[in-house]
Amino acid sequence: MTDRSFRGGDGETPAPALSSGDVIAALATPWGEGGIAVLRLSGDGCTALLDRAFRGRVPLSRTEPWRMRHGHVIDPEGEILDEVLAVRFAAPKSYTGEESGELHCHGGALPAQACLDLLLSLGARLAQPGEFTRRAFANGRLDLSQAEAVLSVIRSRSREALTAAGRALQGRTGEAFRDLLGRATDLAAHLEALLDFPEEEIPPLEEGDLRAGLRSLKGRTEDLRQRCLGGMLLREGIRVGLVGRPNVGKSSLLNALLQEARAIVTPLPGTTRDLVEAVTTHRGVPLRLVDTAGIRSSADPLEALGIQRARRTLEEADLRVWVVDAGEPLTEEDRELAASLRGKTLLVARNKTDLPEAVSEAALKALVPGCAVCSVSALEGVGLEALKDRMVEVLGGSGTLEGALSITRRQMEALDRTGEALQTAASALEASEWDAAAACLGEARSALAGLTGQDPGEDLLDRVFGEFCIGK
Ligand SMILES: Nc1nc2c(c(=O)[nH]1)N(C=O)[C@@H](CNc1ccc(C(=O)N[C@@H](CCC(=O)O)C(=O)O)cc1)CN2
Ligand SMILES: Nc1nc2c(ncn2[C@@H]2O[C@H](COP(=O)(O)OP(=O)(O)OP(=O)(O)O)[C@@H](O)[C@H]2O)c(=O)[nH]1
Ligand SMILES: [Mg+2]
């Protein structure tokens, strides 16, 4: 058999010299019991390294790449560590774009650990979090938004989120970013050319063109922002605080929204003390609902602590649902709470609409102007779908989530910066302040360049890939 000379690490075959740190290895599947555990390697020389650990009918290096082979992983003493399948990828046709390989071991922490230890002892280095994907990025296999999308795919919590992440992984987001950057660059070049004119001689026609170009760029940026906002919602979800005075039915509403008796409900005001959190998914958007203690002034120290937490949730949530009892006239507590909610992202849930009406929608709209009021009955399960629709809409998932593109918070911030810079540029242009307009356009371009990942700094890459798990 041809594989005899490839008996790995038995002292007969000297290890090929590896430049240190070139070959990375890691477990690509979770630790613990499972069907299969996949170890992956990447870097120049990883096939030679695998030859010393894997014994099949023929050495892996002599097999056709991209085809699975059966064999055993053998330690330096000749002991079989596991029966495995192995595959090699020839550069550049691999995930990382480098020479790569995989060992598919029996699932379970021990076989995988033993095989990984062997690979490390043979000269591989344990990969850092996200290092495979980082190498794929460095080798131009993925752009930065695709790399970030890998994580979104992994973390998707709904089919809709997976679709949005899949679009980004296919490169849709990167394309859109590059398109905007290209247009911004054209505009900047146009503007620079005009700056060479003495001020009074700028042709009015050119000026009109420039304004129109900027308007269209702003429009495109806003469209993209909407699609990305949808993606953000699908990826990150919304933290929704259910707040209100005691006994209005916050816990009942939580339970009704979850269709599960999660929180304790009693007719006594002051039932809920601690925060009760639970997630439900609506139109693909994870809604993290937080039930809180009814807010009132209380002498009970325990209740007071709960109320403190309720107030903190009120401050920190992405969205507050102010729950009101429609069957009882508004109290001073209601009015105080309404005042403290003013200016925040808010929905009103007019609960207990199965009872004779004491509080009308109009009265609430007058109390919190511009705020949507949803009439519901937690008891009878009325109006809950509409309430959930509104939760998603209020945070910008209006229109459709259909064309949503998954992006990260980092990307969303850069897109926001782009929009703001374009807005300022437009105002400057209207006022014929050319230099200011050029500066703002420059800002927009640098924000977009951060998005397309052209020339990213090490710290940015550390931040992006540091979130990944080892082996991705
Ligand atoms: N076993 C295994 N499953 C996996 C991965 C992997 O690396 N290994 N992936 C990784 O995370 C994902 C799939 N992504 C991948 C993307 C490109 C290539 C690749 O080798 N592309 C080459 C060769 C294609 C070919 O066979 O011709 C290319 O595009 O040139 C592999 C995986 C999910 N499933
Ligand atoms: N008729 C009617 N009663 C409701 C409705 N929702 C809740 N209730 C009742 O109102 C009372 C208080 O409900 P909870 O859900 O405990 O109210 P809460 O706002 O969580 O109260 P605290 O935890 O004390 O702040 C209970 O008796 C519920 O059965 C509703 O839609 N209609
Ligand atoms: Mg409660």
UniProtKB/TrEMBL annotation:
Residues bound to (6S)-5-formyl-5,6,7,8-tetrahydrofolate: 40, 102, 141, 472
Q: Cofactor note, please?
A: Binds 1 potassium ion per subunit.
* Record has Cytoplasm as a keyword: yes
Q: Quote the cellular component terms of the Gene Ontology held in the record.
A: cytosol
Pfam families reported for this sequence: MMR_HSR1, MnmE_helical, TrmE_N
Q: What superkingdom heads the lineage?
A: Bacteria
Q: Per its UniProt record, what InterPro entries does this chain match?
A: G_TrmE, GTP-bd, GTP-bd_TrmE_N, GTPase_MnmE, MnmE_dom2, MnmE_helical, P-loop_NTPase, Small_GTP-bd
Q: Which GO terms fall under molecular function for this chain's record?
A: GTP binding; GTPase activity; metal ion binding
One of the protein's GO biological processes: tRNA methylation
Instruction: Report keywords, A-Z.
Output: Cytoplasm, GTP-binding, Hydrolase, Magnesium, Metal-binding, Nucleotide-binding, Potassium, tRNA processing
Membrane-crossing segments per the record: none
Task: Report residues binding GTP.
Answer: 247-252, 266-272, 291-294
The residues that the entry says bind Mg(2+) are 251, 272
Cite the PROSITE patterns for this sequence: G_TRME
Q: Which cofactors are named for this entry?
A: K(+)
> What is this protein's function per UniProt?
Exhibits a very high intrinsic GTPase hydrolysis rate. Involved in the addition of a carboxymethylaminomethyl (cmnm) group at the wobble position (U34) of certain tRNAs, forming tRNA-cmnm(5)s(2)U34.
* Quaternary data: Homodimer. Heterotetramer of two MnmE and two MnmG subunits.
The protein's name in its UniProt record: tRNA modification GTPase MnmE
Task: Name the species this protein comes from.
Answer: Aminomonas paucivorans DSM 12260
